[in-house]
Amino acid sequence: MSKLVRITITLPKDLLDAADTRARRLDRSRSWVVAEAPRGYLPADRMPEPVPAYGSGEVADARRRYLRADLQLSPAERLREAEDLVRLARTAKRRGRRSQVIGFDSYEDYYEWKKAHRAGA
């Protein structure tokens, strides 16, 4: 497995927006999309194997298990379970102040969020 290395790059905004759109469509991270781009330029004999995201196999396996279990239910049973979860969420006892962790892909994203947050948006 290849060692991961952090780099800093500068891209035109429209190119970054396109990469972000592609990442959302593929349900992947921005880093994954950017890391995959050079593969199109490398000769086949020089191309390293892709590095899977940490924990991605376990997450994918869990998603498949839940999907299979849900598909065993009838549509009416799935709807009933969804309604039960909504009722449960509404009755859950709130415990004091909640903490929230927010991640950003770049400092610029954080800065834009911070400006909007201070403006009351």
Account of the protein in words:
The chain is an all-alpha fold and 121 residues long. It folds into two domains: 1-53; 55-91. 55% of the residues lie in helices and 0% in strands. It has five helices and no strands. Helix 1 (13-26) crosses helix 2 (30-36). The mean pLDDT is 82.
Condensed summary:
By secondary structure, the chain is mainly alpha-helical. It folds into two domains: 1-53; 55-91. 55% of the residues lie in helices and 0% in strands.
Number of helices: 5
Over the alpha carbons, how many angstroms does the gyration radius reach? 21 Å
Structural class based on helices, strands and sheet pairing: mainly alpha
Mean pLDDT: 82
Low-confidence parts, pLDDT < 50 over ≥5 residues? none
Distance between the termini: 44 Å
Strand content: under 5%
Largest sheet: none
- The shape, in one word, is flat
Number of DSSP strand runs = 0
**Total of domains:** 2
User: Which range best describes the helical content: under 10%, 10-25%, 25-40%, 40-55%, 55-70% or over 70%?
Assistant: 40-55%
The secondary-structure element order is: HHHHH
